[in-house]
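Follow-up to my post from last week.
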Amino acid sequence: MNGLRQRHPSLEFYARRSLRFVLSLLAMVIVSFAMIRVIPGNPVRAQLGITATEQEIRIRTRELGLNQSLLSQLWTYLGHLFTGHLGTSITLQEPVSNIIATRLPNTLEIASMAFLVTMVLSISAGLLLGAFTNGGRHPRTELSFTATTGLLVTIPEFVLAVLLQYVFGVKLGILPIAEKSGWTSYIMPVASLSIPPAAALSRLVRVETLNALGRDYMRTARSKRLPARLLYLRHVLPNVLTATLTLGGLLLVGLIAGTVLVETVFAWPGIGSTIVQAIEQKDYPLIQALVLLLGSMVLFVNFVVDILLGAIDPRSAIRTT
Amino acid sequence: MRRLRATVRTPTGFAGSAILLLVLFFVVAGPILWGPQAARINPLDILAGPSARHPLGTDELGRDILAEVFTASRLSLELSVLATLIGAAVGVPLGAVVAVLSPRPRRLIGTLINFTVSFPGLLLAIFLAVIVGVGSTGAVLAIGFGSAPGFARLSQTLASSVTEMDYLAAARLLGVSRTRLLFRHVLRNIGEPIILNVTMSVGGALLALSGLSFLGLGVQPPSYDWGRLLSDGLANIATNPLESLGPGAAIVITGIGFNLFGESLAQVLGQRVAPRRPGRKERRRLLAEPGARPAQPLPASPGSPAGRQPILRVEGLSVTFPRQRPASRPVRDVSFELAPGEIVGIAGESGSGKSLTALAIARLLPNGAEASAARLEFLGNDMFTWRGAEASRILGTKLPMVFQDPMTSLNPALHLGIQLTEASQVHQGTPRRQALERAAERLRAVRIDRPDERLCQYPHELSGGQRQRAVIAMGLMGEPRLIIADEPTTALDTTVQRQVLAIFRELSETTHSAMIMISHDVAVLGELCSRVLVMYGGLIMEDAPVGELAGARHPYARMLVEAVPDLGTARDRPLATIQGQPPSPAALPPGCPFAPRCPRALERCRLELPAATEVSPGHRVRCFNPLTFDETLVTLVEPATP
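User reply:
Got it. Predicted complex:
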């Protein structure tokens, strides 16, 4: 490893991060497997209710494979994961893989749109306001910006979702109240998912912009009399991105959780609303798969952000290996 | 306690604590005052809209919603506090323990903490809801454990800053056990910020718990908190929106209360003070100050050989910070000219205004600083009105600057190639390839090895001396007519200093560019320059040809020259220093700024500002009582008192 470090420090960084990603995925698999097994009492009885007969419980236990030894259960679980066989939902009587295949795209649609909106909105707003309020200029604009974003950061996405739903769906009646239909039905879910993180991120981008603008290298860049476009996009933006991406990754992870809430408000047919129903009905195969899925998504986002950070800021790659 | 009072006194702090007090009132009194009303079932008044009796309407059992919202304050806050305490109880000791561990386990647990911090609490809550069952126990545990990694990281960061302190290392050497170390030293020292953070986290826990209850994974009926009320109301949003908006408002307002209070408390702890705009009175005071406006037109300025158009002409330049409080004027009435190829040095202590003078000349003053002058011309163009592409092109290619710290004056996120070539590409339209070739050639000219490779490197891959040379090479990309170098060698070690100075000397010969060399080191300037301006308190005190510097006429300039140690300096005596402190630009005396430190000061010096007068051709001094050329000043240079 030492030779590798000397020759290709960045390669070693990527290798380490990939290894960490694979290990944490494995841990996630184990956790999702263990989850059902550590439920106190008999989960099958809990799911079927007190009216269930011994016969029913025995059949369901066998269906879930809970009658075998723990090791062979784990082995079957791993084998099934590799073949994409995730069991059958108890309540929906449908293969879990089918449920995920039909519902995951709906979640990914609003989550990715929300992430895009968040990034575009916050980076442009943060840069613009940073440039505008640099050196204590326009204190009134600064105050109203920090006040507005401060308020928006505090509003949790589900309250915002309910508020939007009331104003635009019920009161004004210009957007569909709930459920997925045409493109207008995307507006409110995406808005409620992206507005709070965009507010938080644009505050950070503004502060980072101010920070970058005060640095010596900006004086050097200004001494070259570059047009404002190059000054901000080439010299400020890359220096702002490191912190932005770090928080952006956290926000994206938060988005995954946020979809659960927002999908519930708007009855959006994604996996977020599905997991809530599955928990209420103790639909263990479905819960297990969805926990694994959401967890892996979080791990994946963290991994991608790490790799991107290493690429953008080569110093961080060397520092953190 | 004092800090708390200071916090309440700020507007945000006041609003925040007012909200929190209100919340506290409902937490204590809500269930007592409104509990019975909230529990009263009225089958005749089901799902009523807002009315005078029921401001937010009633629910499906006819209970008053406003009373329910008030009553729910206690449970909502109770659970949030409980979850936060669980998180802190798990996280804080964990993080603190990590800080006193040996490196290997420390790194391992540190990685684990960092990893779990990024895991959303909601997922953990779902996970726990499956295992312990849906309900407030699971929700509180989940939010608690979910916040633990955050607390652990905070206390780890704080604790490791404590453990790096010397006294802890000493304690460890004395054989104090780890547990004792932890309780006696670490936890005691990180207590205050931790408590602050824990308090503020209650707001976050409230939002998270409300979210869980809203999903049906938190508080179960017949109990209710705000999140539960909100989700119950959601079913009737079309008929009675206030049923859901009421509890929503309670959540948001409480959250805002915690945020505002936390923010202002952090501000008070961090002692951040916002700069204020000056009043009109203050602006007038500034304008009335001596040196605010250039005095009479100057006599034919010295230094420029007759018949040649000067590169730079500065008359009555001053720099002000009108928005600072108190407003200040760190550069006053600076005038000088620069002939083609001439190297002028500016000497002075830090705070004498030399860097601001340079930045004002190059029109690169930071925001908040303003320059004014009777005349400021570069290549015959008025720098105050000259704008547009032509101006940018000429300034960008003919007036390069080199700054003090090469570690920070290059952009860390961009390859050297981009930084060297961009001005040529923008201003001269040089194609990328050609510009890169020229950049490599310029790097070679400042004696950087493997120039082609360097162009693909980031600044952090170069040493300090190499970086400073790269900045100089950057200035050579155009056709420099005036190079302004602000302490270009100060941040470098002595041997590298020599090399960089040699490069400047060489440049002046090969490019015939004029230079302004700023330094606090008179010896450096004496080697390189033909003329030296000595600045003090924002004024040029003496403008002397380098040959006459040893016999400088201004007492300050003479002291500066004589304070330079040389081989003849007695080694058994302390080095000579100039006693006293330079004046703050915000509080300049009405007379000569050096008068308070000057052994030759007259009564007049303290009241009146002397004008610059020519004592010999090309030699100006601003002093009422100048030294004569051969008068010695040994007595003035006092040895430093130990």
